Amino acid sequence: MGKTKLSEAFAQVKKSGDKAFVPYIMAGDGGLSTLGERIKLLEQFGATAIELGIPFSDPVADGPTIQEAGIRALKENVSLSSILLELQKLKETYTIPIVIMTYLNPVFAYGIKSFAADCTQAGVSGIIIPDLPIEEEELVSAELEKHEIALIRLVSITSTEERKAKLANRSEGFLYAVTVAGITGARESYQKDIGEYLASLKAISKVPVLAGFGVATPEHVHQLGQYCDGVVVGSRIIDLFQEKNIEKIQELIQSAKSTQVLG
Ligand SMILES: O=P(O)(O)OC[C@@H](O)[C@@H](O)c1c[nH]c2ccccc12
């Protein structure tokens, strides 16, 4: 079910001639009670899917903005189980696919079987586990497979060709192309050969290729969108929610549409 929901969302984007836009938000940032509102707002603004972060005490790839959002969320005392319960309560109120981004540790603490089952109950379509290396995927893949939850793989600019090919071949839902060698966070510009990198992934990937890390402006969305199927935007979306600059969130999401409305 989950996997199909994601692929249908991407097929719809392609049909419209748009680029996919996947905003990242941290569950529990602003309190768990704001989660439903935020999901519905992002859906209404035209996001393709939502990447929902689970706050974790020892994040690896998170830059300062995401880390601070995680600290705020942990102060609200949210946990993987309270987040999944909240999603389960909310799931009839939106149709946009939800992708959970969590480190491996909380999944293990939860138990992979219950995790996959509860994700299904919560209507979750896909999972991103950035600290799960391809060699260790068997730890979770069978359970996710059973529940038809997409395991989205991350490929990095420093991955070897062989690894890129493996990841592109295995990824489900979409392939997350990390565009920088470093941590998350809004950036001014990209390295020169970013287009080649994305195009080479697109040439070998069975699923849509989305560029993420540092995407912060409509110009970035256009620049990267030339070479791949869309973008993931985290830090900038979190900053804009903090500033209550809802209009700018809409403008950024709309910049991925072929009929863009730039403010
Ligand atoms: O914040 P940025 O630079 O826009 O990048 C997206 C990123 O935050 C989000 O996808 C994410 C948050 N934490 C992660 C950890 C690993 C990989 C990806 C992520």
TrEMBL record:
It is an enzyme of class 4 (lyase). Pfam families: Trp_syntA. One of its GO terms (molecular function) is tryptophan synthase activity. The keyword Lyase applies. Its EC number is 4.2.1.20. Gene3D superfamilies: Aldolase class I. Pathway: Amino-acid biosynthesis; L-tryptophan biosynthesis; L-tryptophan from chorismate: step 5/5. SUPFAM superfamilies: Ribulose-phoshate binding barrel. One of its GO terms (cellular component) is cytosol. It catalyses: (1S,2R)-1-C-(indol-3-yl)glycerol 3-phosphate + L-serine = D-glyceraldehyde 3-phosphate + L-tryptophan + H2O. The active site is at E51 (proton acceptor), D62 (proton acceptor). Keywords: Amino-acid biosynthesis, Aromatic amino acid biosynthesis, Lyase, Tryptophan biosynthesis. It comes from the Bacteria. Tetramer of two alpha and two beta chains. PANTHER family: TRYPTOPHAN SYNTHASE ALPHA CHAIN, CHLOROPLASTIC (PTHR43406:SF1), TRYPTOPHAN SYNTHASE, ALPHA CHAIN (PTHR43406). Belongs to the TrpA family. The alpha subunit is responsible for the aldol cleavage of indoleglycerol phosphate to indole and glyceraldehyde 3-phosphate. This is Tryptophan synthase alpha chain. It comes from Heyndrickxia camelliae. The lineage of its organism: Bacteria, Bacillati, Bacillota, Bacilli, Bacillales.
